Sequence to fold (201 residues):
Amino acid sequence: MAARIAGRTLARRGADYASEVRRLLDAALELIRLHGTATRPRVADIVAASGLSNEAFYRHFPSKAALVAALVEDGTDRLAGYLAHQMAKEATPEGRVRRWVEGILSQADGEIAAATLAVLWNGGEHAGGHRNDAAAIIGALLVGPLTELGGDDPGSDAVLLAHAMLGRVTTHLWAGTGPTPEEVDHLVAFCRRAGAAGRPR
Fold:
């Protein structure tokens, strides 16, 4: 009996903590979007916007940098989910490659670009190290299509292509530019060539 009651208590506490983290992340992202690259919201601002306490903030994040790291991680997971959804609409590996490229490059468009840039700017010099496995997560979605295209090493190729694509998006973000249709076509063709590199000629 005691173990069951303790288990229920821990489950409730876990759910409460997950809700706190979500509220802090959502509040931070909204403030960062509003401030853009003009000013950086303080921990006090984020706590106030979330309706929680300093104690709740520091229960989950040792610093604002840690919270920004979590935002980058959360963004990576959201992007991966979006890409998987878009790729599932295509029946051919070529179509899935195009959806993958277009989905990644869409992060450099409009409001999404502004929010992503603001998050990176708030992360400062540490932003690039927050999610070292981002390319692996995004690249994993490309392994299937590249395998179907006949590549020699689809796993390695997918991660390398993900690094290249994320790097290209970052360049656009900091330059305030967006991909042209010609660039999209070029990158799709590049990825398809990489995927078909192992086919006999």
